[in-house]
Amino acid sequence: MSELAYTDFRSFVEEAKKISDFRIIENADWDSEIGALVESTAELVPQPPMLIFDKVKGYPAGFRVCSLPYAAYRRVALALGLPTDKPKLEILRLAARKVRNVQPIAPKEVSSSPLFENKLTGNDVNLLKFPALRFHENDGGRYFGPGGGLINQDPDNGYVNTGTYRMQLHDKNTLGLWMSPGQNGRQICAKYWEKGKSCPVVASYGQHPMVFMPSYTKFPYGRSEMEISGGLMGRPLEVLRGPITGLPIPASSEIAIEGEIPPPSEEARAEGPFGEWPGYYSGG
Question: How far is 119 from 258, CA to CA, in rounded Å?
Fold first, then answer.
C-alpha cells in the first residue's frame, strides 16, 4: 500500500496545490456569495479547482473555508494514496479496488493533539466565530459543513458510528441537524430517545480525508467507519477521548464540537430549507 503524502487536512490541501488547480479567494461574503461561487465552479468547470476562501466578510484572516477538495480526480487519487499521474479511468479502477479490499484497523487512542490547544466550554462557546455559510438564497439559515462527521455510540454494544449530516447554525451554542430515519446515526440516537435520554455526540470538521470519505459511505450497521479509515490509511486512526462525551474524536480534526441531541419530543426547531446538490430545496 502506498504511503499517504499528507498527515491531516491542512497538509492534504498543501499537497493538492502541487498536483491540481486551486484558487485563493479573499473578501467573499458568507451570505450566498461563497455558495454561488462554489456551485457555479462545480457545475461549469471540468475538473474544478479547489477553492480556498480567506478573509471572509466579517471574519479575520485565517478563518478559512475550503471547498471542492475532492472534486477533481487527481485530488481523489492523492487522498487515497494512489498515483496522481494516471488517467481518470485508471484512478477510478484503482480506487474501487482499494475501497473494496480494505482491511479494517482499530483506532489508537492518544492523549494530545493540536485540537486541544484552543478549548471553549460553557458560556464561552460561540459558534458564530466561524464563517458558517448560507449557501443558497432560499436557505433557512447558515450551515456548518456539510463536510464534517457526526460521531455517536450505540449504548448497547459500543459500536461507534461516523456519519455526514447537514447541521444548521441556530445560535452561538446550538447546532441543529437533519438525519433521515434510516441512517445509522439516527438509529443510535433513537435508542437514547426511547429511554427519555439525550444522545451524546461529537461534530468534527476539517477532518483527515480518510476520515471524511468513509463517513458519507454506506456501511452495514456495526461496521465502524473509524476502522475503515485506519484500513485506508494503512495505520491506526489516532483518536482523542472527548472530555465531555467520552467519545473518540479524530485527533487530526480542525474543529470538534461536543454536545448532545435531546429527544425531539423535548426540544426541536425548524430546520432548513436547504438547497440540495441535485437542484431542489428540502426541509423547512
Answer: 11
Is residue 81 pLDDT above 70, yes or no? yes
Tell the residue number behind the cell numbers 450551515, with chain if given: 143
| pLDDT tens-digit series, residues 29-41 | 999 999 999 999 9
Instruction: List, in order, residues 6 or more apart from 106 with CB less than 8 Å away.
Output: 227, 230, 236
> Residue type for 20, please?
S
**How far apart, in whole angstroms, are the C-alpha atoms of residue 255 and residue 118?**
10
CA distance readout (Å), 249 to 46, 76, 139: 35, 24, 30
Q: Using CA atoms, how far apart are residues 171 and 125, in angstroms rounded to an integer?
A: 10
Question: Can you give the pTM of this predicted structure?
Answer: 0.93
Please state the φ and ψ torsions of residue 71, each to the nearest 5 degrees.
-85, -5
- Where do runs of H (alpha helix) occur along 120-275? 184-193, 209-215, 225-233
Say if strands 50-54 and 22-26 run parallel, antiparallel, or are unpaired. Answer: parallel
Position 1 pLDDT exceeds 60:
no
Helix (H) or strand (E) holding 194: none
Long-range contacts of 10-18 (CB under 8 A, 24+ apart): 10/206, 10/254, 12/69, 12/78, 12/79, 12/208, 12/209, 13/50, 13/52, 13/66, 13/69, 15/78, 16/50, 16/69, 16/75, 16/78, 17/50
Quick check: 69 and 75 in contact, CB under 8 A? yes
Question: What one-letter code names the amino acid at 276?
Answer: E
Tens digit of each residue's pLDDT (9 = 90 or more) over 160-171:
999 999 999 999
Name the H helices within 111-269: 184-193, 209-215, 225-233
CA pair distance 76, 103, nearest whole angstrom = 20
